[in-house]
Amino acid sequence: MMMQVPLTVGSILEHAEKFFPKKEVISQTHDKLHRVNYGEIGQRTRRLMSVLHELGIQNGDRVGTLAWNHHRHLEIYFAAPGMGAVLHTINIRLSPEHIIYIINHAEDKVLFIDEDILPLIEKIKDHLTTVEAFVVMTDKAELPESNLTPLYSYEEILTTGDPTYEFISDIDENEPAGMCYTSATTGNPKGVVYSHRGIVLHSYALGLADTAAISESDVSMPVVPQFHVNAWGTPFACTWFGTTQVMPGPRFTPKRLAEFIEKYKVTITAGVPTIWLGLLREIEQGDYDMSSLRAVLCGGSAAPLGLIKAFEEKHKIPFYHAYGATETTPLVTLSRLKSYQQDLSAEEKLKERARQGILVPGLEMKVVGDNGEIEWNGKDMGELLLRGPWIASEYYKDERTEQAFVDGWFHTGDVVTVDEEGTIQIVDRTKDLIKSGGEWISSVEIENAIMTHEAIFEASVVAIPDEEWQERPIACVVLHEEFKDKVNKEDILEFLRPQFAKWWLPDDVLFMEEIPKTSVGKFLKRQLREQVKAHYSLQD
Amino acid sequence: MMMQVPLTVGSILEHAEKFFPKKEVISQTHDKLHRVNYGEIGQRTRRLMSVLHELGIQNGDRVGTLAWNHHRHLEIYFAAPGMGAVLHTINIRLSPEHIIYIINHAEDKVLFIDEDILPLIEKIKDHLTTVEAFVVMTDKAELPESNLTPLYSYEEILTTGDPTYEFISDIDENEPAGMCYTSATTGNPKGVVYSHRGIVLHSYALGLADTAAISESDVSMPVVPQFHVNAWGTPFACTWFGTTQVMPGPRFTPKRLAEFIEKYKVTITAGVPTIWLGLLREIEQGDYDMSSLRAVLCGGSAAPLGLIKAFEEKHKIPFYHAYGATETTPLVTLSRLKSYQQDLSAEEKLKERARQGILVPGLEMKVVGDNGEIEWNGKDMGELLLRGPWIASEYYKDERTEQAFVDGWFHTGDVVTVDEEGTIQIVDRTKDLIKSGGEWISSVEIENAIMTHEAIFEASVVAIPDEEWQERPIACVVLHEEFKDKVNKEDILEFLRPQFAKWWLPDDVLFMEEIPKTSVGKFLKRQLREQVKAHYSLQD
Questions:
Q1: Where exactly does CATH 2.30.38.10 map onto chain A?
Q2: Where does the AMP-dependent synthetase/ligase domain start and stop, copy by copy (chains A, B) (predicted)?
């Protein structure tokens, strides 16, 4: 038989230490730009593991991080699971109440904190019930003044560590390696626990020629935060494959992203549509060389067709639509044309590329509508159900588990169509679908159509209760500055009319200054729906 | 936590059925060329699973194949493990005695046999102790005359099968999925058992951008036989990723290979150096368009530098040196330049490419010499030890296990150097190293040097006992036809002198008509050594 060797996160960095010691991570922190290679990162991570050991961290204990994307954060990515503990990345954009909740709920024992995030933790420190030590990740020689105690300096504590400390190897690969909380529509965030096995298999998936094809020859810049589903797992995969990584650090701007892409010849980058809208504006104003980019990965929410078109056709930057969630480690689908689809017209290709793509090898999917599994005809809608070794089986100690994990499948809450090629398109969230006269209307499809109008900066469509039809769609739109007061409701409806059945057209178009969003840039439809109902003085 | 979903071979074909149903396998059998797509292969495989079930095959039972590379063989690749049985591919080039041994030792219950191999089995049938049924894979409507009983026709029996039969999913991924016997230097062949887990992880490894990068857009032609380490696992990986496969069928010639590459625009192909020497001669004589080829994978034994040079420089065909063994599923290393090695001179690049490459992600290696682990300096020699989920932990029911599997590591018996980049070079087999005056001489390095001489067709270097030095090298060479009688011993030694220390030079050069080889084209050094000793009338 074959050897029983567990898949472990530590083995990823060990591989990089041995085969790519000279390859670098270029990392922007508050005070300076760092260049550290995988040989050094290996040594520093080993020191950090021994420090965690000295701090009393034991197998299965949670190590929290409140940090931007940088090399120190990367080191904790490997040190925590590498010595048997669990990396808990905390979304710094959550409310203080939610941050208190998840630190206590995860029972974090140590917190690693970026200097600019210290004040946030100082304010809530009295509410933290399990934290025994704080480590500030600073470039400065001296510790900042703080009421946190005990407080250590990352670099100083590292000097006390053992650079020969060994990665744990005799563990069950199904043991926890990481965790991340995802915001819920109502109530507290829900925790997802990542296993060693899941992270390693997911890293393979990211390296496949037909997915992200992450390679030693790449220069990867994760824009998606390391506190958000492990920056989509790219830091793990990139380290394994010896890829140069460029970490944009704290509070980056579109300008810094564009400059880093040009300066470090970034080949692959990953983020949400909002980021790419910002970058697009930046590169259209400035004079940047973006020619090194071979792949912009876009996920988190559906990218408007216009955005994809601008990247691909105008700027010749390959743009890949992907789909995933905190519960899915996250890569589930990625949009790439099959070889025989290269013969399609430019327009058809773009349409296909705007879909979310096909399932990556290693997962299973099922799409279930009102009458069981739907047909793969590109029209029928159903909820996407997922199964596989990097799909969560539960929320961590949370009774909401039973709503989302049923009969061995994760119920994503996303409504999709699937075409004959097996390509999915996210049509809506189950809860955002509009039920009008017994039929379903996809709020997302109307949004996407509206967003192709030149005057529109962003748009969101929500349902309001309707006596006759049960629900009816209302469009909420934000105009580009130069179109303010120059476009009216009828213009928008006129624009939509040729594209949809009459009963799909919104009953009204509301012009707004801003659409409310979550901390990761997704439309906060629940809040928008309340605003719209208030506008019409409606009640549930 | 994450879901507990096993990695199974069946799920590979299920993925292809769903996402690549239209992609084809082009398959040459005795009588005709077949084109079957993955949708059809899925249905046929399901029928075959139900047929195996009807034949009484149960979980863990072995299903033997004696067949060339074609679509039916591919279907059994999935049907046997897909229904819980074990695919046992039998090397048809072994002696009848060894074939009897391994069929009985594996306890095969059914044999799937190509029509032209029937006579071989008819001759040995009375020695087979466990086989209960024979299936002949023929295109003809009628069964051939045969003394095998019961004998079924593959296509006929398939019509009785159930096209909706389900792949087994509730199994332990560490259960056996396949097995293959490797010839031993002495005694009977040794069996290696492949697990579902190992095959799936190995398939991921083959799809990585930095290894074989197998993609949906590829057209893959496995020349390495399906009876030899699962054609290096490419049929599994290619099916998973939706790759078009071109199966060259029985008794192919270099001409057929060249024609298939041109006709079907083959992009990737895999085989041993002997095959590529043959193809090289063919394309240098004929007028073929080889421009579709993006990768020729070469393994099994070290490729001469001249061969690599001819493919890469003369014909502009990228040539990848790889290393593996029956015990390793087989991919262990693959030679690709790192990004920063692109700056090397053409000569240095070629030299680097001629090494066997770096370890693929997911495995561990250790190189042990007389004084423990060697330094990675490109000079020190040691035996390559391997560990990982697709490395065997034993030989199947064989006491020779304890020689090769020690302390959790597979001792490959291959002597290598490792350079600063972690790139290995196979220097010799431990048993073929020449120990002269307390130092080691690599027979392989001298062979490689001799083979770059224009007059040499092939060369092998072996040791003879020596009273003063313990052992001394003797070179055995075969000249190209046009150089016969035009090159002598002194010419060869003169050619070698600038390249080696004086004491490395062979004591003699013997001119031969042929060097004895194994059934898979490797030099049979043991036999050669006997011939050489007989030549000098020496005894051990």
A1: 363-429
A2: 15-396
CATH 3.30.300.30 intervals, chain B: 434-536
Q: What is the 3-state secondary structure (H, E, C) of A89-130?
A: ECCCCCCHHHHHHHHHHHCEEEEEEEHHHHHHHHHHHHHCCC
- Interface check A144 vs B, CB under 8 A: no
Please judge whether B3 and A358 are an interchain contact, meaning their C-beta atoms are less than 8 angstroms apart: no
A428 is written with which tokens?
Answer: 């809506």
Are A4 and B174 a contacting pair at CB < 8 A? Answer: yes
Strands B268-271, B295-298: parallel, antiparallel or unpaired by DSSP? parallel
Confidence of residue B188 (pLDDT cuts 50, 70, 90): very high
Instruction: Choose the catalytic residue: B132, B440, B518, B522.
Output: B440
The CB-based long-range contact list for B490-498 (8 Å cut-off, 24+ gap) reads B491/B455, B492/B450, B492/B453, B495/B449, B495/B450, B495/B453, B496/B446, B496/B449, B496/B450
Give the closest residue to A410 by CA, choosing from B475, B1, B287. B1
Q: What is the pLDDT of residue B428?
A: 83
pLDDT digits (tens, 9 = 90+) for A491-532: 999 999 999 888 899 999 999 999 998 776 778 888 899 999
Question: Tell me, what's the pLDDT at B282?
Answer: 96
CATH number for the domain running over A363-429: 2.30.38.10
B500 touches chain A (CB under 8 A): no
Pairwise CB contact (< 8 Å): B208 & A210:
no
User: Under 8 Å CB-to-CB from A467, ≥6 apart: which residues?
Assistant: none
Token pair listed for B57 = 């095959």
Catalytic residue among B435, B489, B517, B522: B435
Test B362 with A217 for CB contact under 8 angstroms: no
Output the pLDDT for position A467: 87
Q: Which residue has the tokens 């390959």?
A: A318
Q: What is the DSSP letter of A2?
A: B
Evaluate if residue B538 carries a pLDDT over 80: no
What pTM value is reported for the model?
0.92
Query: Counting one residue from A and one from B, how many pairs have CB atoms under 8 Å apart?
Result: 163
Contact with chain A for residue B168, Cβ under 8 A: no
Instruction: Answer whether A134 touches B (CB < 8 Å).
Output: no
Tokens of B56: 């009484």
Query: Is residue A236 less than 8 Å (CB to CB) from chain B?
Result: no
Q: Which of the four pLDDT bands, split at 50, 70 and 90, describes residue B520?
A: low
Contact B540, B474 (CB under 8 A): no
The answer to whether B193 contacts A362, with C-beta atoms less than 8 Å apart, is no
How confident is the model over A426-437, as a mean pLDDT?
Answer: 85
Instruction: Give A178-216 pLDDT, tens digit per residue.
Output: 999 998 767 899 999 999 999 999 999 999 999 999 999
> For residue A540, is pLDDT > 70?
no
Choosing among 3.40.50.720, 3.30.70.20, 3.90.550.10, 3.30.300.30, the CATH entry for A434-536 is 3.30.300.30
Q: How far is CA A359 from CA A117, A362, A365, B19, B412, in A?
A: 38, 8, 8, 8, 37
Single-letter amino acid, residue A432: D
Q: What are phi and psi of A532, to 5 degrees?
A: -65, -40
Tell me phi and psi for residue A212, to 5 degrees.
-85, -15
Mark whether B23 is an active-site residue: no
Judged by CB atoms within 8 Å, which residues 20-59 of A form the interface with B?
20, 22
Is residue B440 annotated as part of the catalytic site, yes or no?
Answer: yes
Interfacial A residues in 322-341 facing B (CB < 8 Å): 329, 338-340
Q: Is the interface score ipTM higher than 0.85?
A: yes
- Name the active-site residue from B262, B312, B327, B458: B327
pLDDT, averaged across chain A: 94
- Report DSSP state, residue A430: G
- Give CA separation, B194 vs A2, A283, B205, B365, in Å: 6, 52, 15, 20
